[in-house]
C-alpha cells in the first residue's frame, strides 16, 4: 500500500509524534507506579480498604460444626449465617441466601488424622452474585489449606508435639476487590493505546481539506478505498507498535499476562473498527474543531461498549458478555478457559464493524460534496446510504 507506507514513514519521522509516543510511555510508567502504590495502600492493615463497599453484598448459609472454615470466611465480603443445613437449600431456592456451604461434621478429627475434609458449595446460577460467593470460598479454602500445611510442617520439625491442631491464620493471594481492580486496570491499559492516535487520522484527512490538498490526493491513480485504507492501516500499524511496547512494559513491571500473543493480536484487531469510525468522522468533518467534538462523543460510546460487558462478565460470567473484545482479552490474559464460539463472537463483530466503518468512510471520501462542499446533512447522507434517497 503506497499511501500506508508514505503515511507511516512521515509519521515516524515527525518529531511531534516521537515526543507524544515517548510521553505516552512515561504516562504508562507513572500509572503503573501510582497503581502499585494504591494497591499497597489498600491492602495494608493501616491503609485504606475497599472491602466495606462489599459488606452484606452476598449472604451464605454455612454448616460447619468444627468452625474452622466458617471463621476463615471474610466477613467484609460475605455475611455468614450458621445453620444445621435442614432448610438451607430451600432458602437458596427461595432467594433468601446466595449460597449454602457445608463442611464435614468431623472436620477437626479428619484434619488431626491427616484425612481429606469434604466441603460442598451450593449456588444459584441465576444469581449474579454467585461469582462473589464462589471466589470468597475459594480464597477461604486456599487460606485454610495453606495454614494447615504450614502447621503440619512446623509440628514435624518441632520437638514439642500436641494432640491439638495448631492453626496460624495468614493472608494468601489478593483480596476479591483487588483481583477485580487489577483485572480491570490491566485490560484498560492494554486498550488505551487504541484511543491515543485518533488525531493522526484527523490530521491526515481533515488536514487535506484545510490545506486544500484533497484535490491532488483524489486526482491520484488510487481509489478512495485505497486512500482511506492506506491512511487507516498506517495508524493501525502505529497502534500495534505502541501496544507491543505497552505489553513489554507491563510484563517488566510484574503484571501476569497469559496467552500474550493472542491478547496482543486481539487488541490490535480491535484497532481496526476504531480507526474506521474515526475515519468516518474525519471524512465528514469540516475542520479540526468539529472532528474533535465528533471523536470525543464517538470514543465515549466505544469505551462504554468495550468496558460495560467486561464488568458485567466479572459479576455474571454470561456468554453474551463476550461480544466485547475487552471481555475476551481479559479472560485470555487471566488464563481462563475460553471456548471457540466465545472467541468468534467478539472477533466476528470486530471484523464486521471494520468492513462497515471503512466502507462508509471511503463512500464519504469519494463524494465531492462532502470533501469540497457544499456538504449535505447527516440525515440526507443516511437516507442515501440505505437507498431511500438517490443522490442528485
Structural write-up:
Helices cover 63% and strands 5% of the residues. It is mainly alpha-helical. A four-stranded mixed beta sheet has the order 2-1-3-4. Helix 6 (176-191) packs antiparallel against helix 9 (224-252) and helix 9 (224-252) packs across helix 13.
Short description:
The chain is mainly alpha-helical and 392 residues long.
Number of helices: 15
Low-confidence segments, given as residue ranges, are 46-53, 161-167
Radius of gyration: 28 Å
How many domain modules?
2
Shape, please? elongated
Whole-Å distance between the termini? 33 Å
**Largest beta-sheet characterization:** 4 strands, mixed
Q: Features of this protein?
A:
392 residues; ABC transporter permease; single chain; ABC2_TM; abc type-2 transporter like fold; 2 domains; transmembrane; mainly alpha; elongated; four-stranded mixed sheet
List the helices and strands and how they pair.
Blueprint lengths: L1 H12 L1 H29 L14 E6 L14 E5 L5 H6 L5 E5 L3 H6 L6 E5 L6 H28 L18 H16 L6 H13 L3 H6 L4 H29 L7 H25 L3 H29 L8 H9 L6 H26 L2 H5 L5 H8 L7
InterPro entries: ABC2_TM
Keywords: Membrane, Transmembrane, Transmembrane helix
Main location: membrane
Amino acid at each position: 500500500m503506497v499511501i500506508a507506507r508514505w503515511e507511516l514513514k512521515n509519521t515516524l519521522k515527525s518529531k511531534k509524534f516521537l515526543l507524544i509516543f515517548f510521553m505516552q510511555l512515561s504516562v504508562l510508567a507513572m500509572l503503573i507506579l501510582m497503581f502499585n502504590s494504591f494497591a499497597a495502600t489498600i491492602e495494608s492493615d493501616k491503609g485504606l480498604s475497599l472491602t466495606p463497599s462489599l459488606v452484606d453484598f452476598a449472604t451464605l448459609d454455612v454448616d460447619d460444626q468444627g468452625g474452622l472454615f466458617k471463621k476463615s470466611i471474610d466477613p467484609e465480603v460475605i455475611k455468614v449465617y450458621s445453620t444445621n443445613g435442614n432448610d438451607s437449600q430451600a432458602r437458596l431456592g427461595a432467594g433468601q441466601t446466595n449460597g449454602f456451604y457445608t463442611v464435614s461434621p468431623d472436620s477437626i478429627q479428619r484434619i488431626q488424622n491427616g484425612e481429606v475434609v469434604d466441603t460442598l458449595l451450593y449456588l444459584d446460577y441465576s444469581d449474579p452474585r454467585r461469582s462473589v460467593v464462589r471466589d470468597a470460598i475459594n480464597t477461604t479454602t486456599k487460606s485454610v489449606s495453606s495454614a494447615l500445611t504450614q502447621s503440619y510442617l512446623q509440628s514435624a520439625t518441632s520437638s514439642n508435639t500436641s494432640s491439638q491442631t495448631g492453626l496460624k491464620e495468614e493472608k494468601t493471594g489478593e483480596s476479591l476487590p483487588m483481583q477485580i481492580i487489577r483485572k480491570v486496570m490491566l485490560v484498560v491499559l492494554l486498550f488505551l493505546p487504541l484511543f491515543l492516535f485518533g488525531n493522526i487520522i484527523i490530521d491526515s484527512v481533515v488536514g487535506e481539506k484545510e490545506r486544500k490538498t484533497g484535490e491532488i490526493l483524489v486526482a491520484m491513480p488510487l481509489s478512495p478505498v485505497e486512500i482511506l485504507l492506506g491512511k487507516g492501516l498506517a495508524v493501525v500499524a502505529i497502534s500495534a507498535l505502541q501496544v507491543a511496547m505497552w505489553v513489554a512494559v507491563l510484563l517488566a513491571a510484574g503484571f501476569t499476562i497469559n496467552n500474550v500473543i493472542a491478547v496482543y493480536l486481539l487488541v490490535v484487531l480491535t484497532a481496526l473498527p476504531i480507526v474506521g469510525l474515526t475515519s468516518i468522522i474525519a471524512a465528514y468533518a469540516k475542520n479540526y474543531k468539529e472532528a474533535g467534538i465528533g471523536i470525543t462523543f464517538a470514543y465515549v460510546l466505544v469505551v462504554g461498549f468495550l468496558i460495560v460487558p467486561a464488568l458485567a462478565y466479572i459479576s455474571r460470567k454470561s456468554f453474551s458478555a463476550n461480544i466485547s473484545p475487552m471481555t475476551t482479552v481479559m479472560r485470555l490474559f487471566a488464563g481462563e478457559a475460553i471456548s471457540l464460539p466465545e472467541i468468534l463472537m467478539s472477533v466476528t463483530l470486530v471484523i464486521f464493524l471494520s468492513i462497515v466503518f471503512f466502507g462508509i468512510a471511503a463512500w464519504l471520501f469519494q463524494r465531492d460534496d462532502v470533501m469540497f462542499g457544499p456538504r449535505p446533512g447527516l440525515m440526507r447522507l443516511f437516507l442515501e446510504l440505505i437507498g431511500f434517497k438517490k443522490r442528485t
